[in-house]
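ERR on first pass: missing label on line 2. Operator R.T. fixed the label and resubmitted. Corrected input:
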Amino acid sequence: MRLAAAFLAFALAVLTVVVSRPAMAGPYEDALAKFTTESYADTDEGLGLLATSGNPLAVDIVEALADGRLLFNADAKTVYVKKADGSLIDAATGQPATGVDEAALKPVRANNRVRRAIEAASGALSLMNPDPAKRLAAAQAVFKSRDAAARPALETALSRESDPQVKAALASARAAIVLNDSASPEADRIAAVDTIAGAGNQDALALLQNVPADAPAGVKTAAASAVASIQHSLAIWDVAQNIWYGLSLGSVLLLAAIGLAITFGVMGVINMAHGEMVMLGAYVTFMVQEAIRTYDPGLFDASLIIAIPIAFLVTGLIGVVIERTVIRFLYGRPLETLLATWGISLILQQAIRTAFGPTNREVGAPSWMSGAFEIGHLSITYGRLWIIVFAGLVFLALLGTLRLTRIGLEMRAVTQNRRMAASMGIRTNWVDAMTFGLGSGIAGMAGVALSQIDNVSPNLGQSYIIDSFLVVVFGGVGNLWGTLVGAMSLGVANKLLEPYAGAVLGKIALLVIVILFIQKRPRGLFALKGRAIEA
Amino acid sequence: MLKLFSEPGRFAGRLVGRVAAGAAALALIGAAVPAKAEDTIKIGVLHSLSGTMAISETTLKDTVLFLVDEQNKKGGVLGKKIEAVVVDPASNWPLFAEKARELITKDKVAVVFGCWTSVSRKSVLPVFKELNSILFYPVQYEGEESERNVFYTGAAPNQQAIPAVDYLMSKDGGEVKRWVLAGTDYVYPRTTNKILEAYLKSKGVKDEDIMINYTPFGHSDWQTIVADIKKFGSAGKKTAVVSTINGDANVPFYKELGNQGIKATDIPVVAFSVGEEELAGIDTKPLVGHLAAWNYFQSIDTPENKAFIEKWHEYTKNPKRTTNDPMEATYIGFNAWVAAVEKVKSTDADKVIDALPGIKVPNLTGGTAEVLPNHHITKPVFIGEIEDNGQFDVVWKSKGLVPGDAWSDFLPGSKDLEADWVKLKCGNFNTVTKKCGGA
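pass 2 clean. output:
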């Protein structure tokens, strides 16, 4: 009886081995089987097996999984890669698959856990990729995953690498593994500390702060001194980074306020509808992008450039209409102007809400405005950089218009002495309309830039109107340079305060500072001197 | 002299004439209304259609109108057609109370569907108590409240925030050890973060591993805060952001995350106020993998949801119009009210309030929403990852339905409190002192 049972067990074991052999042929096949179970945990494991399987097909599988092109049949336990042209490849053999029932196939799903595993696996697999950019990304992925299994591949790659940037990244990745590897000799680990400290960034700091507790004392002291020096240099970079953020915030304030510097600063009109001009400019950008998407998607990268003049003309025209129909009857009556323009702002908001709906509209970023680059440890996003450049250009263009053109001369003449200008034959009515139109048009151009960083919704303008007045009053009414300096100093001050006081308190503190400043110098930073003050 | 007197006199005479004419017109309208009211049941819709909250609330107004339309096609309720009275409180909190009073006393509505922000709900509460009417509140909120006249069909913190944090602590969620609690500076994020902080500490998370950050409404410059989050997250422990950032501030926040290259695989952000509607304004490609916790997603594949979306598109004549969680909560609330009214054959507030607990109506995700004695409902919890098409891919769902808990078990002041309007007839019964009336 017992013998029979033993025999049966033996037979069963043999059977199991025989039956499961085709599926158990190696780590690569094991990995594929893991992709058919609809479990994130299994997919994660499968990726780990794949990375070390050494199978040349592994790279394609990982890429397909990342793009959602890896399909599986849950019943047959088969996995396929879908190519860009829609044809299927059998993942087990790498040969084109025929006669597959596509309706039974489901894509292997990815969540964050799987995506992290994909990054680590593709890092380990593409260390030898011919494209240096991919090798760099791979080295960084290994640095992040610190996967000790990738060390041999890393060392081979390191010995062959010629690109200095990639080489440095590979060395850091290797050092990250060595540092945490208790089997490595102490000297190697201290050398690893030096390599990591050389990178000097936040990741290096984190790595050195978390040296394993069982590391030799020599490694620990080396790490501690490296941490101190990195912290010191990062603190200095932090200040630089905050100043950059401040300039970037300042440029946004400048864009929003510079049109107001014309209508409020030069003409003396309290225009509460200024923010709505910014909002209209953003909606013009949205419509331009919609038109481009429908008629010529290839032009998308140029959409903002195309939107700028259109936004200027549209909002400028609306500005002229507002001036001709409402504001010209109210010159010299600031309270009535305030109420009337406040009413106009509500009308414009609700009109846009009715026309476009209350929800946000999507304005895409052209490719040259996405992403970031690093100078030292300063990370600079392209979007912000271009907005600073754009704000500078608008400022110079406006300054040039006021200084060098005939209309600019007439504007200055009218605002300084209306009667005298009229006696000289200047059509003051026309100049008023043009000035208001110019201020509104510039607000519209600001809207094009702000559509990149803020919501394109009917409420867009409201959030900028108070800040704009603050900038103009702080900088000195009637002076463009004052607006520039005012915007930049408010931006930088805000960003330097924020890390200490928090966003809410920082803003309050800034308001208090400006109020105190205005008490001391009621005419702002750059007060106009002489007779112009009376204007 | 004479002229001076005659002018106002004439004016006064004209004024009297106008007032009389106006009164006559009013009387005519007044006479017309009762005649019509006899064959309809009026319900109130109290959602902002202008101002900052219009972005979220307009959809809910449309939802109620859509549900009324559907119900009337089925013959209305108690054999009468339902008539929706829409008012616009314009994102102005005191105006909410005024408009609520107007709906109840002037329009004589049987029930009101409305409010989004907690402050608007708090503003209308005294009105509903004083005039004894019913409010259905369809938005996820901070809890710590249970009123006799209010039914909360949105999620309480234990139906949204706590499960989301649990998911992130699990292996699938990435075993997060370090937490950023980022929110807009008002009552919902502050209370939710207080609950979450207490909960995380009870799970052994240390003080230095929790960073709490508040920003003003409509905050648009996120550079410093996102850089801080990045720095906080690079300390070698897995980090996640729990976001209670509200409304418009989300778009620039997510844009900045994308710009600074923070991917969901590095630092995932789980949001409680970001749904399909909010994502409509952003390019979601850089956001793939960031999370949201809700009790409903448009992408959930059930026959009920499919039919609902189809009819919604038909009603709005817009095949791209999204659906979201507060819409489902409105749907549940509306159907629960209809079921309660049919049960007691009356729209009388007292009868309906007593009939509502125990009412079960199907939700859109294949489950059943039951109105509980604490005036909250049972809900499933879903966690979705943002996909590149602006929809959510559900990566986790609760095992069963989670009953809404009005008073959080993780706050010292509220863990002894219990709300039960059936047996205890009390919204804040203290289980230690055995008294109704709070802590």
